[in-house]
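agent> Task received from the user: take the single chain below, predict its 3D structure, and emit structure tokens. No templates, no multimer pairing.
agent> Plan: (1) validate residues, (2) run structure prediction, (3) serialize to tokens, (4) report one or two observations.
agent> Step 1 OK, no nonstandard residues flagged.
tool_call: predict_structure(input=
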Amino acid sequence: MKHIGIVCEGPTDYIILKGVIDQITGAKNTYVMLQPENDLTGKYGNGWKGVWKWCYDNASIRKELMKGIQPALDFLVIQMDGDVSRKEKSSHCWCETTQCVHKGEWNPLECDITPEGRAVCPIVLPCPGHTASVAGYVSHLKGLLTTWLKETDDTCIVIPCDSTEAWIVAAYDQTDGIETIEEPWEHIIAHGKYYHNIRIPGQKKRTRIFEQFVPTVCENWSKVTELCQSAHDFEESLLALV
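)
tool_result: status=success, residues=242
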């Protein structure tokens, strides 16, 4: 059994990751959700920018932070969805192919907040520095997170493509090419009032709904890793740590 810290985009990702990690390791591990904070109104907020900020701000003190939590954390799992690479221009600010007069001066997390900032952004997607594919998105975001963290010997980075919800659809529907379907929550899971007899009350992601998904995702995890390159990559990376 391990004590694991999770940095992720949102509480629903945290729920799925906990179940999957237990399934992969064959153990009932214990967890701490480092990001986002429970009320989602903490220092970093939620979403991919919250993950970015947490990694950037805590890189130099990460090991002390892990030891300071009791019991001490054995390792970290850091999640960012692959759709960030697909659709968020600011995630490509550090790419070698990006030519911007403000590179290194403006904070990419802030330059796209205003209409003026978005208007002058020279980035065109898909970024020519990466292939517009699952492998390209995973490689790009893993490289980005590794750059921010500086050291990753005690860290497992996971990039679900297009998002964590793709793994859910793979578990339930066993859909080929599910990682290439954009926004699987909106277009598949929450498209109707029910998803496999689970009531879906609108587009908002609710933790109690995702808790109902966990048993099926875990039961069919081997199939998920067959259908989802990002899930297979996560399993291999995690097993290398444990």
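agent> Step 4: summary for the user.
The chain has one domain: 3-241.
agent> Done.
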